[in-house]
Design goal:
There is one protein chain. This protein is mostly helical. The chain is globular, with a radius of gyration of 17 Å. The protein has one domain. The longest helix is centred in the middle third of the chain and has 26 residues. The chain starts with a helix and ends with a helix. One of its GO terms (molecular function) is L-lysine efflux transmembrane transporter activity. Keywords: Membrane, Transmembrane, Transmembrane helix. It holds the Pfam family Lys_export.
């Protein structure tokens, strides 16, 4: 069975189970994320270690910059097309997939835009999981890492590596790591701008 179909089946199954039972998994998601990052670290250590991080070079620093610029351009376009105030459209776009951060930050300013920030960034993560394998058929696999934004170091990394290959694992991790460091500053900064 096609991997993308399996991902969709498990996503839908998880949604149905989540709606059907009232179990609170608490911080299980966070624990699983740490385990995933540990496994990624082990895999990185086995393959190329710190040499691999150095190997990404300038491109590894430029790719997050391209992601930020592209995301903000997307926010400007969304502002125009959807008639959303530019400040909120840019702040939503600046979440770059980090829905659990973007939504709450925006909610301090507006409940509606907080929900939008959460949903848009959740959609970015889900669409990366579902769509990365299709996008790399038309675009370079390393440039397609930008789809995942900050999630390219954790939740979308397994998908990126599965379809893009292990040779882009370090680039994807570095890309997501840099964005994860920057997003908590970019989003609040945009919301403070007098625009």
């Amino acid at each position: 069975m096609n991997f993308t179909v399996l991902v969709l089946i498990f996503l839908i199954l998880g949604f149905i189970v989540g709606r059907s039972i009232g179990i609170d998994f608490g911080n299980m998601y966070e624990i699983m994320l740490y385990i995933q990052i540990l496994l990624i670290g082990i895999d990185l250590g086995k393959s190329s270690g710190l040499r691999g991080v150095k190997k990404v070079g300038k491109f590894g620093l430029l790719l997050p910059l391209f992601t930020i610029i592209g995301s903000l351009i997307g926010g400007i376009i969304a502002s125009i097309v959807l008639n959303i105030p530019i400040k909120y459209a840019l702040a939503i776009a600046s979440g770059m997939g980090w829905y659990s951060l973007c939504g709450p930050i925006l909610a301090k300013y507006s409940a509606i835009y907080g929900v939008m920030g959460f949903l848009v960034n959740l959609a970015r993560e889900v669409l990366t999981i579902i769509g990365y394998s299709f996008v790399i058929k038309k675009f370079p696999k390393d440039m397609a890492i930008t789809l995942g934004g900050g999630t390219s170091m954790d939740s979308t990394l397994p998908i990126i590596v599965k379809f893009g290959g292990k040779d882009i694992m370090i680039l994807s991790f570095v890309h997501g790591f840099i964005l994860t460091l920057l997003i908590p500053f970019i989003t609040p900064f945009i919301l403070m701008l007098p625009i």
